[in-house]
Write a structure and sequence with these properties.
Structural class: alpha+beta
Shape: elongated
Number of strands: 20
CATH class of the largest domain: Alpha Beta
Number of helices: 9
Number of domains: 2
């Protein structure tokens, strides 16, 4: 069983050492389930997503939320270790440091070090690093997150409140041509030529989009990019088909439908065979005010996170965690011990 009495940095390292690449979260889910069971929390589990409630007989309930999964391992990934004041390894920053902080809160409540002013729900879920639906989607649709007044999603934010996030739209299209021998291309039509035309349109659109906007003095920018281009032909054949993927990160002011209309102005909808859209969001800051500390910097995350799903479900939520999101998914991923400890002291003020 995970020993939640260990120092926060060591506890984080223990979690990093448990392989939980997306699709392989069961071992870590079982381990945290055992912790919650041993501490006699009220537990509900959906696949490898867990909601564990600590009823303190208080009026309000907050949730500490974190995803258990990591991105796949990189060939250049270093070993999990603590060295030079850093906790290194896959998931250290994104976001096992957040999971460790939540488990340390549980330990300090159980040992009487923290006297909470609210009921606590620990929400740990699977599948965040892949397409929707993920574990949060399933917990919401199965009504496992009822009676939660506010949620802190413990993604790395450098201890800032991320009160909004960009939407994320992925569009896949199949562009058609006519195959021919590469020595006689005039008898065919190269699908990559149409792809090149679309790439130019996307680049022009991105150049026009990528200017900073603001909401309540919080800057962000929209961006659209071609992220994949593939064919399946032999090297001496003019391709008759090219698959192109466009990714659009869009403003909290824009809906999924508006985002789709924008991308369909770049690639004809008749070629599109797949779309996946995560809505953008901005939290209701008036409703959230009683759960946020004065003096903590606020921003809009230049990415998509599950605060969008939570806010859409009526649960006010912000991202709030240790570590720098710029280090997520990188071979040299780490979170500094001092940053984690400073975040934890700030987190306790919210409990």
């Amino acid at each position: 069983m995970i020993d939640i009495s260990r120092p926060l940095a060591d506890l984080t390292l223990d979690l990093v050492k448990i392989d939980s690449v997306i699709g392989n979260e069961k071992e870590l889910a079982d381990a945290v389930f055992d912790v919650f069971s041993a501490n006699k929390l009220q537990i509900e589990r959906v696949q490898n997503s867990i909601v564990a409630r600590l009823d303190m007989k208080k009026e309000k309930t907050i949730a500490l939320v974190g995803h258990l999964d990591t991105v796949p391992k990189s060939n250049t990934l270093g070993s999990a270790k603590i060295e030079n004041g850093k906790i290194e390894g896959l998931g250290s920053c994104d976001m096992k440091s957040g999971i460790a902080a939540a488990l340390k809160v549980l330990y300090e409540i159980k040992t009487g070090t923290i006297n909470p002013s609210k009921n606590i729900a620990f929400v740990f879920y699977d599948g965040e690093e892949g397409p929707l639906p993920n574990g949060i989607t399933r917990l919401i649709t199965q009504n496992k997150l009822k009676n939660i007044d506010f949620a802190y999603v413990l993604e790395p934010t450098c201890s800032k409140y991320c009160v909004g996030c960009l939407g994320a739209l992925t569009v896949k299209a199949a562009l058609c041509g006519v195959s021919a021998h590469s020595a006689n291309p005039k008898t065919g039509k190269n699908a990559l030529a149409e792809a090149a035309h679309i790439i130019r349109k996307v680049e022009e659109a991105d150049a026009a989009l990528s200017k900073y906007q603001e909401i309540d003095n919080m800057p962000f920018y929209e961006t659209v990019n071609v992220t994949q281009l593939t064919t399946e032909n032999a090297s001496n054949v003019i391709p008759s088909k090219a698959n192109i993927t466009i990714n659009f990160r869009f403003s909290p002011k824009r809906s999924c439908e508006s985002a789709k209309e924008f991308v369909f102005s770049l690639v004809d909808e008749k070629y599109v065979y797949f779309t996946d859209c995560g809505s953008s969001c901005i939290a209701d800051l008036q409703r959230a005010s009683e759960f946020l500390q004065n003096g903590v910097e606020r921003e809009i995350m230049q990415a998509w996170t599950d605060i969008a799903q939570l806010n859409a479900a009526g649960i006010a939520a912000v991202n709030f965690g240790a570590g720098d999101i710029k280090l997520a998914h990188k071979p040299e991923e780490y979170v500094s011990v001092s940053a984690l400890e400073n975040f934890y002291e700030l987190l306790k003020l919210h409990i």
